[in-house]
Write the structure tokens for this entry.
Amino acid sequence: MGLLRPRLKGTAVDFEEYLFMSSMFISAGRGAEAVEAARKALALASAEEPGQGTNALIMLSSAQERAGDTKGAEATLRQVLAKDADNPTALNNLGYFLTEHNEKLQEALGMIERAVRAEPQNPSFLDSLGWVYFKLGKLKEAERYLSDAARRNPTSATIQEHLGDLFKKLGQQEKAQASWRRALSLAAEAADTARIKAKLNGETK
């Protein structure tokens, strides 16, 4: 990340650089540094370009989640929606966040449905919708949306892992194993790799 710092100019043009740095820190699992970079971007967001503040807040929420600040991440996304109630990315991210934590699943469903209506071909949004249906026990709907998401984005480890979990729930063990193997081949982070391997080895309930 040290290579990025010389690119900073010490002016408002650093906004995009700090956003990029935050994204890189998130990918590297360095949550605290991701939060710091996102906050610097937020401080540089132009009042004349409302989208900058929104983008910085969405990045900040992802950084907060990576740093383990779950309440902060939720609060930041709700801050976005308080100003821009129809922002599809914020709706999807908050809906998925709640789904992952098994909280307010009906609220999560409503948010993700609105995101999908806004961007019906977005594979990340379709995955979120399939995943919340899975958590709600609506497996037919879950399969519809997760399969569509996988078709639109065949290189997502998350989508393949979700499909594997669904197939296991449906009693289709061979399909589950195949999806988890694909997920494992696509996973980049150690925690994801370990979790998927545990599923392949039957070490999870």
About this structure: The first helix runs from residue 14 to 27.
